[in-house]
Write a structure and sequence with these properties.
Distance between the termini: 33 Å
Strand order of the largest sheet: 1-2
Structural class: mainly alpha
Number of helices: 3
Helix content: 55-70%
Shape: rod-shaped
Strand content: 5-15%
Number of strands: 2
Radius of gyration: 36 Å
Low-confidence stretches: none
């Protein structure tokens, strides 16, 4: 009348591209922002033209008037300032691109490492369940039938029972480790499941 937990079925994981990873998406957005900022800084070399129209209605104090203003802003008065801001924006863009590449490499390495750990842990769990536990169970049944009246027989019985329980604990801990590795892999992929 012991309650045994239901064994989960480990289906093959769906492999996603790392363009979907949350960290990589965030770094890609940072690169896009720095590129846009760089483009804006480069536009500081171009003169700004402005055209403005004002129209005033006639009132008791003033006559009706229309006003048109044309303005030109020339950034070349101090030519080194736009050049310095463009250089700084370019440096920020290169830095953001380098951080993106670093994040992509780290994420890919971590993903590969987790996939390899999942594969090894599945193999270890299969070995424990298919080979070691059945052998230990058979040995336990054999030792039960042996004489337990002598001290050596009792000691042998005790060691066989303890080794069987140790294997069961190893099975449970390996399964828990496998489940946590799979959860970490899903978290890395950005599923949050």
């Amino acid at each position: 009348a012991f309650l045994t937990p239901v064994e989960p079925i480990f289906r093959d994981l769906e492999i996603k591209e790392f363009g979907n990873s949350t960290k990589v998406k965030l770094k890609e957005q940072e690169v896009n922002v720095t590129r846009i900022q760089k483009d804006l800084k480069e536009q500081a070399y171009v003169p700004d033209l402005s055209l403005r129209y004002r129209g005033y209605n006639k009132s008791e104090m003033s006559p009706r008037s229309d006003e048109i203003m044309i303005g030109i802003t020339i950034p070349f008065a101090f030519f080194w300032q736009p050049k310095a801001t463009v250089a700084a924006a370019t440096a920020r863009t290169f830095r953001a691109e380098a951080e993106l590449k670093k994040t992509q490499i780290e994420t890919q390495n971590k993903y590969d490492n987790l996939r390899q750990r999942v594969t090894l842990q599945k193999a270890q769990l299969a070995t424990i369940r298919e080979k070691l536990l059945p052998r230990a169970h058979k040995r336990m049944l054999l030792v039960k039938n042996l004489s337990q009246r002598t001290m050596e027989g009792l000691q042998e019985h005790r060691s066989v029972m303890l080794s069987y329980l140790d294997l069961k604990m190893k099975d449970i801990s390996t399964r828990a480790l496998l489940e946590s590795t799979i959860a970490e892999l899903f978290e890395l992929q950005g599923d949050g499941k």
